[in-house]
Design a protein that fits this description.
The protein is α/β, with parallel strands linked by helices. It has a single domain, classed as Aldolase class I (TIM Barrel, Alpha-Beta Barrel). Helix content is 39%, strand content 14%. An eight-stranded parallel β-sheet has the order 7-6-5-4-3-2-1-8. Helix 3 links the parallel strand 2 and strand 3.
Length: 307
């Protein structure tokens, strides 16, 4: 197989969901203007990203970095085969997302009440009820639903999360029309063996739905966890250009695994992503310039190998 900037041609494919425009920016002190966010999204697509979490339809008073979601969606370039994802947490957010013509809706359902109450103002049981309402409202729209299980590997408020708890939440999600379920290590506490075991456990109750994983590198285990997920059969991974990210409601949580660093690990492991490594590294640096800080990613500093 011939090597390329987007992974070996003809190799097994791993899909990258770029979350930089949402998760990457929502915890930054500097708020990027709508124009920069549109440019970031369009340039990520030009680099080969085909699914991108573009916006979040949350209360801008709580997360000012995500204000202007409608303006962002109105300004992005729409291209065949590209999915612009909108995060929603309630019915009002869903109505905004549908009106803004998102390609896909993602709903976050925490595995713990401690995080759910602080992040979303309700219990997990109440959030599952909201999810059912969102699922019903999406019927007939043609907009696919994906669901992310937050704090699946550990919670900043409730501590350890029993795998049985995550399995039960996934079982409830499987009662909806969701086409994909993601396991999120919101605060970066997971380790590879935990990933392997949890992916296997939820796979038994996910009803054949695609599984996706979302890792933060808070304790320097994010990339090992991503590779463990791939070894366990996961073929969709979230990442953030430059390694920026974090949650305003998760104390001490640091950035997502960096897209460019993840691409390097996947490509060197013989996997194809379709996303340009050099393009992603350049975009990570571009984000750093606009945010006024050094990107946490290493690829932009060390460079690819071979050069």
């Amino acid at each position: 197989m011939a090597a390329s900037d987007s992974g070996p041609e003809g190799a097994e494919h791993v899909e990258i969901v770029e979350v930089g425009p949402r998760d990457g920016l929502q915890n930054e002190a500097r708020t990027l203007p709508v124009e920069d966010r549109i440019e970031l999204i369009d340039r990520a697509v030009a680099a080969g990203v085909r699914r991108i979490e573009a916006v979040s339809f949350v209360n801008p008073r709580r997360v000012p970095q995500m204000a202007g979601a409608e303006e962002v969606m109105a300004g992005v370039t729409r291209a065949p085969g590209v999915s612009h994802i909108g995060l929603v947490l309630n019915r009002r957010g869903l109505d905004r997302a549908v009106a803004a013509r998102v390609s896909e809706v993602n709903v976050a359902v925490p595995a713990t009440d401690g995080f759910c109450v602080r992040n979303q103002g309700c219990t997990v049981e109440e959030m599952l009820g909201t999810l059912a309402d969102i699922d019903a409202a999406l019927e007939g729209t043609g907009i696919p639903l994906s669901v992310t299980v937050s704090t699946a590997f550990g919670c900043p408020f409730d501590g350890e999360v029993a795998p049985e708890r995550v399995v039960e939440v996934v079982r409830r999600i499987a009662d909806t029309g969701a086409v994909e379920i993601a396991l999120a290590d919101t605060i970066g506490v997971g380790v590879p063996r935990q990933v392997t075991a949890l992916v296997a456990a939820v796979g038994e109750v996910a009803g054949g739905r695609a599984l996706r994983c979302h890792f933060h590198n808070t304790r320097n285990t994010g990339y090992a966890n991503a590779l463990a997920a791939v070894d366990a059969g996961v073929r969709v991974l979230d990442s953030s250009l430059g390694g920026f990210g974090g949650c305003p409601f998760a104390p001490a949580a640091t950035g997502n695994i960096a897209t460019e660093d993840l691409l390097y690990a996947l490509h060197r492991s013989g996997l194809h992503t379709g996303v340009s490594l050099s393009g992603a590294a350049a975009l990570g640096g571009w984000m750093g310039e606009r945010l006024g800080k050094q990107p946490p990613a290493y690829l932009g500093r060390a460079g690819a190998f071979p050069a």
